[in-house]
Each structure stands twice: as structure tokens, then as C-alpha cells.
Design a protein that fits this description.
CATH superfamily of the largest domain: Cytochrome C biogenesis protein
Largest sheet: 2 strands, antiparallel
CATH architecture of the largest domain: Orthogonal Bundle
CATH topology of the largest domain: Helicase, Ruva Protein, domain 3
Distance between the termini: 81 Å
Number of strands: 2
Order of helices and strands: HEEHHHHH
Helix content: 55-70%
Structural class: mainly alpha
Number of domains: 2
Strand order of the largest sheet: 1-2
Shape: rod-shaped
Strand content: under 5%
Number of helices: 6
CATH class of the largest domain: Mainly Alpha
Length: 162
Amino acid sequence: MMKKLLAPLLCALLLAGPVIDGTAEAREAAPTAFDPVAHKRVVEVSEQLRCLVCQNQSIADSNAELAVDLRNQVIEQVKAGKTNQEIVDYMVERYGDFVLYRPPFKLSTAILWLGPVCLFLVGIIAFYINLRRRKRLVNEATKPLSAQEKALADELLRGRKE
């Protein structure tokens, strides 16, 4: 019984974090220590670069350790006075075109650009072929009405029921 009560209490204390001067220490990211223009540049560059761990987030949005390290590299390079393009070029040189959200069109990245278009076209062609096949099967399965069946249908439509 005591263990059941103690486990949630211990988890709550561990998740609360250290207490300094009676208040819980903040777990938010610290603001950057440089001017707003440089901060804007860091955000612009970080939004162009893909998190290599998450792959669906930019390094500006990701909290993965690698993304934090990449953001820190961007910050250091902005402080060193490098241009946005120099920073992006450095990241591409180090991690390849995959680090870019909009990789350049070249032979090694052609599948990224042409893949979705090709898949869409294959889907449209498969849909068209399937529709033609179904239409052919329906036409083969239906046979024309005989004269007796037509007469019966006419009587039913006129309201005379047998």
C-alpha cells in the first residue's frame, strides 16, 4: 500500500524539477543573448534546415538534441558574422542536401522532386484502367431483355400487375 502511494509522489517530484528560492525552475528555452536582428537571422536559417532526427520538423521547431546542437551551430556562425547562405552551405557540406527543406534539383535529388508527380500519374492511370475494366465487365454481364421481358416491364410500368 505504501509503495502504491510513494511511486506517484516520487514521479511528481522528479517531473517538477529543482526548486530554487521556493519556485520551480523554468523549463523554457533561454532567450538568445544577442540583438533581435541576429535572432531573426537564426530563425530564418533554422527554418530552412530539416531536423535530421525528426525529419518532418525544422531545427527551429524540433527539440531533439541534434536539432539543438544545429541551432547552436547556427547561432555561433551568426555571431561569427557569416551570411545566411554561408551558414546553409556549411550545413549542406556537412550533412548533405537532405538537411534542406527545399533541396536543389539535381540528379541525386530528382526522386524527391519527381517522385510525387510520378506516383500521382501512376495513380491516375491505374484509376482509368480500373474504370475501363469495370465498364467492360458490366457490359459483358448484362444481356438485353427478351421480347417477353420487355412486354412484362412495360405492363409493370403502366400499372398492370399480374
